[in-house]
Amino acid sequence: MSLTIAEALTDAARRLREAGVGEARREAGSLLAHTLGRDRAYLLTHDDEAPAPAKLSLFRGLVERRAAGEPLQYVTGRQEFYGLDFEVTPDVLIPRPETELLVETALGVLGGHASPLVCDVGTGSGCIPVALLHERVDACALALDISPAALQVAGRNAARHGVASRLTPLVSDCFDALRAGVWKATRFPLIVSNPPYIAGRDIAGLQREVRDHEPRFALTPGGDGLRVIRRLVSEAPDFLEARGHLLFEIGFDQHEAVSALVDPRTWTLLDIHRDLQGIPRVVALRRKE
User: pLDDT tens-digit profile of 63-72?
Assistant: First the structure.
C-alpha cells in the first residue's frame, strides 16, 4: 500500500531527526514539495493523497542524501536570494541571507551613477551581480571567478533572470584577468566581493553541511582567512575610478583586523555595515582621488 503525503512526511522527518538534521519536519516538507513540483501549501491541503510510487522512491533518495549531511540547497538545486530563485550546485557557495546586505549597500552606492559597470570578484553562483542587474536595468556587470564551473552556474542564473546580455563572466584569480586584453583600461565605479574569509583553523568547527560539501576554495584561503581580502584592498585601486567604491563581506570577528589593512592614504573607510544580527559584515571603502 502506497504511503500518503502525511505518512511520507512523518517517516522522512523521523529519518532526518535521527540523522541530526535540524528542523526535520520543515526540511522533509521542502524535499517532498520539490519532488512533487508543488508548494508546501499543497502538502497541507492534500495530505491524504498517495503520491506515485516512483515519486516516493525519488523522495526517499533525496531524504537519504540530506540525512547524510548534503545541504538541502544542493539536494534541491535551488536557493532564494534577494527575492530571486538561484540555481546552486556543489561548484558554488550557497548564497546566505547576510550577503543581501552587500547588495543593498551596493544599490545605495550606485544611486548616483547612470548605466554603471560593476565588477564582482569571486562571483560563485552570480547571486550578487544578478540581483544588482535585476534591480538596476541600466547596469552591466563583470563577474570574475577562478572556477569555470562556477561561472557556468552564474551564467545560467543570469539567463534565468533575464540579465545574461548585461553580465560578462570571466575566469580570473582575483583581478588577474583584467591586467591585459580588452579589460586593461577599464575602471569601475564599484567593485563588490564576497571573498573566502574563514580562517583555516575554523574549518573543522563548521557545520558538516558547510565543511564537507561546500567548495573549500570559496570558504577559506587558509591561514588567517584574510589573504583574498588583502588582495582586494591592495589591488582594487588599480581598477577603480577616482572616488570609486569597494564593498566586501567579512567574517563575524574580522572587522578590527580588516580595518587595520586599510591604508588611509588610498582609502576612506566609510563604514562597516552590521547585518541583522548586529555583526559587522560589509566593509565600504571609497578610493581617494
Answer: 999 999 999 9
